[in-house]
Design goal:
Elements: H1 8-48, H2 50-55, H3 57-64, H4 68-73, H5 75-123, E1 140-142, H6 151-168, H7 175-186, E2 194-197, E3 207-209, H8 217-232
Antiparallel strand pairs: 1-2, 2-3
Helix pairs in contact: 5-6, 5-7
């Protein structure tokens, strides 16, 4: 049998080594326990947030009843339930993103159609040459074209517009207002530069922005006659 006896000095050295290793292990345990407590406190603050409680009331109630120690003991079941909710929420987010993309596509087509109508109206507003004073002029002019804006910029601007409408809970009152908002937003909020011929011989400005123009009754009749003459012609 081998001799396993130790001298007093050897035993003291071995015990000192064991105590040192035990102290290191205890310090590591305390550090991990502190990190676990901090993590649980962060989770507790999260579940107490009104937004989280509104979105996930059942998860919040279950976690609110837990302590750091009970949560540690039930971590497997808690993790499984949370993972299940994460999967469901991810699926809901994907569905919402798919619906949002479809909506954005329809908005993009709508704004392109509105821009096309606006351009055609401007092209069709040419006054015949034989009309006194205004012959050869266009009743409408549009300075900025949607085709000048990159498609990805249009998509981003429409996405921002859609998010704002959801947050504010407000929609345009009619199709014309919707088209105006979308056209403006698609171009980064800058004015479209729509101008109308001001039917007045001594007008300081031959064309004025539609948000500035104001016509008298006589000027309105003249403008109506010009538009009517163009439509008949």
């Amino acid at each position: 049998m081998p001799d396993l006896s130790l001298t007093l000095e050897e035993l003291k050295t071995a015990l000192d080594c064991l105590v040192s290793r035990l102290n290191v292990a205890v310090a590591a345990i305390h550090k991990l326990a502190g990190a676990a407590d901090d993590a649980f406190e962060a989770v507790r603050l999260l579940i107490e947030d009104e937004t989280f409680r509104r979105l996930e009331p059942h998860v919040a109630d279950n976690l609110r009843r837990s302590t750091a120690r009970s949560a540690g003991r039930e971590r497997t079941a808690l993790a499984a339930r949370i993972a299940e909710r994460v999967t469901i929420v991810q699926s809901e987010i994907e569905n919402q993103q798919r619906d949002q993309n479809a909506c954005l596509q329809q908005l993009r087509l709508y704004v392109m159609h509105a821009d096309d109508l606006l351009r055609r109206a401007a092209r069709s507003s040419l006054i015949p040459d034989h009309v006194p004073i205004y012959g050869g002029e266009r009743i409408l002019k549009v300075k900025h074209r949607l085709g000048e804006v990159p498609q990805d910029a249009i998509q981003n601007q429409l996405a921002v517009w859609l998010d704002e409408r959801v947050v504010m809970g407000r929609v345009p009152k009619d199709g014309a207002a919707l088209a105006a908002e979308l056209l403006s937003r698609a171009q980064g909020g800058r004015p479209l530069g729509i101008e109308m011929l001001k039917p007045k011989r001594d007008a300081i400005e031959a064309y004025m922005s539609v948000d500035r123009i104001g016509v008298s009754n006589g000027e309105g009749v003249t403008l109506a006659m010009l538009l009517g003459h163009r439509n008949i012609g």
